[in-house]
């Protein structure tokens, strides 16, 4: 089994990223996503609250973009903790070109497209060190954490530094062309998988044989289904009651070479024997 990211981003995001070093990123931290409890905002609020009350007293402002059924609950949660969060309506991510850092504490997605988009736009992304974010570990501007202390460290790093411009190779990994190449590579049939195909073929043949004729009707009756054919219409082949023989397993290359060597040795022995008896 192979897991691979086969998702890319629109070229518009990459164009924004190309211009980011020249234009500069004037705003600070933001979150974007549907206003749902599962999207990670409660976790972000918890981290902000812990950092504010810690000895270091790290505080920062967050612009939260997104609409949804839990919008009011999330707003009340931020107010109850007196957090520095400004809520905005849902917006196209492409419009947020001036923010420097996206904070995405969510782990509910298999792969978060907004993280890929933010990296493509040349931003920092602060996110958990989680399997759903494994693909993004390779990007220098992805700042991961697995503890509150590391989260604080990444927040401070983003405050005091600018994102690195993407080189051509890094940029290409976010394109749909690269995603397609990863998909093709992941879909390739390896020798190990191909060697198992005879088992699949036999299983399919046996399943077909089991569903034919009278025995097929009997199996359906046992399963609680109606017979497929009337008894007078059952088409029973001559070999219908004989299950298909399993195909022989494929020989490995090592076994094949061994068999060939043994055959050559037998031929040499036979030739020697014929010469000996002919001489006598």
TrEMBL record:
- Offer an example of a GO molecular function term for this protein: digalactosyldiacylglycerol synthase activity
Q: Where is the composition biased (Polar residues)?
A: 252-262
Q: Where in the cell is it found?
A: Membrane; Plastid, Chloroplast
This entry's Enzyme Commission designation comes to: 2.4.1.241
Where the record annotates domain Glycosyl transferase family, the positions are 27-133
The record's keywords, sorted A to Z, are: Chloroplast, Glycosyltransferase, Membrane, Plastid, Transferase
Q: Please report a single Pfam family linked to this protein.
A: Glycos_transf_1
Top-level taxonomic group: Eukaryota
Q: Which Gene3D superfamilies match?
A: Glycogen Phosphorylase B
Recorded catalytic reaction(s): these are:
a 1,2-diacyl-3-O-(beta-D-galactosyl)-sn-glycerol + UDP-alpha-D-galactose = a 1,2-diacyl-3-O-[alpha-D-galactosyl-(1->6)-beta-D-galactosyl]-sn-glycerol + UDP + H(+)
Q: Where is this region: Disordered?
A: 230-280
User: GO CC annotations?
Assistant: chloroplast; membrane
Bias (Acidic residues) ranges = 232-242
Q: Which enzyme class?
A: transferase
Family note: Belongs to the glycosyltransferase group 1 family. Glycosyltransferase 4 subfamily.
Q: What is this protein called?
A: digalactosyldiacylglycerol synthase
Which organism was this protein described from? Lotharella oceanica
């Amino acid at each position: 089994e192979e897991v691979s990211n086969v998702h890319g981003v629109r070229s518009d995001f990459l164009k924004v990223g190309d211009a980011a070093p020249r234009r500069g990123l004037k705003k600070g931290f933001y979150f974007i996503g549907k206003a749902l409890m599962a999207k990670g905002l409660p976790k972000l609020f918890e981290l902000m609250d812990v950092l504010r009350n810690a000895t270091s007293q790290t505080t920062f402002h967050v612009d939260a973009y997104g609409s949804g059924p839990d919008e009011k609950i999330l707003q009340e949660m931020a107010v109850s903790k007196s957090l520095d969060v400004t809520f905005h309506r849902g917006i196209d991510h492409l419009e947020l070109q001036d923010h420097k850092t996206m904070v995405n504490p969510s782990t509910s997605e298999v792969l978060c497209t907004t993280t890929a988009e933010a990296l493509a736009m040349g931003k920092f992304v602060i996110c958990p060190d989680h399997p759903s974010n494994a693909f993004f570990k390779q990007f220098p501007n992805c700042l991961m954490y697995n503890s509150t202390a590391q989260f604080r460290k990444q927040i401070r790093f983003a405050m005091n530094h600018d994102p690195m411009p993407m080189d051509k190779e890094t940029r290409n990994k976010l394109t749909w062309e690269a995603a397609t190449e990863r998909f093709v590579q992941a879909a390739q049939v390896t020798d190990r998988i191909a060697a198992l195909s005879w088992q699949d073929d036999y299983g399919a043949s046996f399943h077909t044989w089991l569903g034919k004729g009278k025995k097929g009707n009997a199996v359906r009756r046992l399963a609680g289904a109606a017979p497929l054919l009337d008894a007078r219409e059952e088409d029973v082949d001559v070999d219908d009651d004989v299950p298909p023989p399993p195909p022989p397993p494929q020989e490995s290359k090592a076994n094949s070479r061994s068999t060939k060597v043994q055959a050559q040795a037998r031929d040499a022995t036979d030739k020697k024997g014929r010469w000996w008896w002919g001489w006598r």
